[in-house]
Amino acid sequence: MDRGAAANLFSQFSFPKSFDVLVEPEAGFITPEKAIRLYATEAKKNGAIIHSNEKVIEWNKIGNNVTVKTHRHTYHANKLIITAGAWAGKVIPAIADKIKVTRQFVAWIKTRDDKKFALNNFPCWMIADDNKRGCYYGFPLLDTNKFGEPAGLKLAHHFPFQPTDPDNVNRQTTNEDIENLRYCLDNYLPGISDSVLHSKICLYANSPDENFIIDKLPGFEENVFIACGFSGHGFKFASVAGEILADLAIKGKTELPIGFLNAKRFS
Ligand SMILES: Cc1cc2nc3c(=O)[nH]c(=O)nc-3n(C[C@H](O)[C@H](O)[C@H](O)COP(=O)(O)OP(=O)(O)OC[C@H]3O[C@@H](n4cnc5c(N)ncnc54)[C@H](O)[C@@H]3O)c2cc1C
Q1: Which of 136, 139, 150 is CA-nearest to residue 105?
Q2: Cα-to-centroid distance, 85 and ligand 1 (Å)
Q3: Which of 55, 72, 217, 266 could form a disulfide with 224 if both were Cys (CB 3.0 to 4.6 A apart)?
């Protein structure tokens, strides 16, 4: 889109002269909590049994079977799918050196004029410039009655930040977090407001090329299937990742083109 037209349409942003603007009218967002509830409900309708809050301590392959020991029980199965997110390296030691877990700061900002940033008046957005690696991104202001807490305009910096141990994360907001946020607000959303209503520290599980790893686990090809290294952009692919994993576990192969996601590409 012409920069002038974009500035008229989205006057909330400051568009530097050197910027190109791309508008994607079909783009949108997913509310993950609702999506996860929906997936879990549908899975249960199809016979899945979900054991929440049950930590896997270890798994082993014995003959052509797999044993999974949790802090409650020991389970035996023929096939095992592992999707442990930021803990993938702990649950699958063979890929531990391929998954870099990073600490990510997310903020919800108070807006001076809520209407200007409301859904339908303000888009999902992403901004990349030459000074910072990765890109800044955010969402429209969402009605907490409909979308839940927290209130405020959500935004963050998509880039693998400080490496961390997923079991020992600094959850305190740092000066660096705030300076980085301020850089984005000052440059691209000037005048929006100066207060952070809420913030959170989350985790990315980054693969070396920031593409996912979805494959049969090397050495355990008949029984164990893995999906990890989603590198901060995996949620929207949850359904297709599930389809691939089900194909691999049930049929031993998938028609979907997953060659570029194979687990051996970094060795
Ligand atoms: C701040 C932030 C913003 C993001 N924004 C986007 C976005 O805009 N778009 C997008 O597509 N993606 C986004 N993502 C990425 C997305 O959330 C992840 O890619 C996705 O959740 C990865 O799914 P997963 O199943 O691999 O891991 P998770 O969703 O982390 O699930 C892993 C699960 O395994 C459990 N687990 C781990 N170890 C064990 C164990 N030993 N025993 C039992 N359970 C265990 C964990 O408790 C967790 O529930 C974002 C992530 C962050 C942190």
Answers
A1: 136
A2: 5
A3: 217
